[in-house]
Amino acid sequence: MTTDSDTPWLTEQEQRAWRTHLDVSRLLMHQLERDLQPFGLTNNDYEILVNLSEAEDRRLRMSDLAAATLQSKSRLSHQITRMENAGLVRRESCESDRRGLYAVLTDDGWDTMRRVAPHHVASVRRHFIDLFDSENLESLRASLTPVAEHLRGRRGKV
Predict the structure, then answer these.
(1) Helix or strand or coil: residue 69?
(2) Which of 52, 86, 150, 154 is a Cys-bridge partner for 105, taking CB atoms 3.0 to 4.6 Å apart?
C-alpha cells in the first residue's frame, strides 16, 4: 500500500472502533434478515411495510418511498413488483400527477405487518437492545446522532 503523507490515517483506536462498527452492522442486519425469513420477508420488504404502515392512508408516493428506504427508483420498482405478486402492496395512480404512482399497503400487507412486527421487535431486542443497559443505550444513541445528522445532510449531494 502506498501512503500519502497528507492522508490522516486512522489511529489504532479509530481503526478498532470503525471495524467493530462494520462487524456489528453486517452481523446484526444478517441476523435480522435470518429472523424474517420464516415469514418470507427480507429486511427491505419489512422496511417498506413499516414505512407504508406508518404513512397516512397506508400509502406513499413511490419517489418518497424510494427516498425513505434509500433505494433507487428502479430497484424499488422491482421490489414493489415482487411484493405486489405476494399480495402485500399494490400500486395506484396519482390523480394529481399522471406520472406519479403510489405504493399502497394491502389488507394482507397490513395483516402481515401486524403478525411479523412482534417477532421483529423481539429479534431487535434479543440481538441489540437488551445487550445494553439504559445508560449505555442512551450513550450509543447520543454518539451516533451526529453521524446520522451528518449523513442525512449529505443526501442528494454529489
Answers:
(1) coil
(2) 52
